[in-house]
Amino acid sequence: MMEAPEDGSPEERHLPRGLVRTGAIITIVASVAGLLTTGVATLYSALIANDQLEQSREVAEEKRREQAARVSYWVDVQPDGMPRLHLTNRSPDPISDAAMVFEADYYADSADAARREISTAMFAVRVVSVPPCSDLVFTSKDMRHGKVGDGDHLVTPYPPLVDEPPGPFWERFDGPPRVRTERVVFTDRNGQMWQRDKRGLLTEGPGLKAPRGKGADGAVMAVQPQSLKACADTAGLPRSTG
Question: What's the whole-model pTM score?
Answer without folding.
Answer: 0.70
